Amino acid sequence: LASNKAAIPEICSSAAQYFNPYNRDELINKINNIIDDNILKEKLINNGYKNTLKYSWFNTADNMVRIINNLNK
C-alpha cells in the first residue's frame, strides 16, 4: 500500500496499491483487497521485486560514473 500523493507512485510504480491518504475508507478497502485477493498479492510482490532492481547501489554508482564522465567531455 502506498499513498497516491507526491512522488510515491513514481517510485513504487506497479508494485503498490495506491490510496488517498486523506480517505480512511479507501485505505481500508485497499487493505481488504490485498488480504482477499491472492492473485493481486502475488502480482504486487513480483512487481515489487522487479522494481527494486531499478534502485540497486550498483546501478546508482554506474549512473554516477557515466554522468561524471560526460561532464569531463
N-to-C series of helices and strands: EHEHHH
Largest sheet at a glance?
A: 2 strands, parallel
**Roughly how many Å apart are the termini?**
43 Å
Structural class: mainly alpha
**What percent of the residues sit in helical stretches (DSSP H or I)?**
55-70%
Q: What's the shape?
A: elongated
Q: Tally of extended strands? A: 2
Averaged pLDDT, please?
93
- In DSSP terms (H or I, runs of 4 or more residues), the helix count works out at 4
From the alpha-carbon coordinates, what is the Rg to the nearest angstrom?
17 Å
Q: What's the arrangement of strands in the largest beta sheet?
A: 1-2
Residue stretches low in confidence (pLDDT < 50, at least 5 long) are none
Q: What proportion strand?
A: 5-15%
Your description of this structure?
This protein is mainly α and 73 residues long. It is 66% helix and 5% strand. It has four helices and two strands. A two-stranded parallel sheet has the order 1-2. The radius of gyration is 17 Å and the shape is elongated. 3% of the residues are buried.
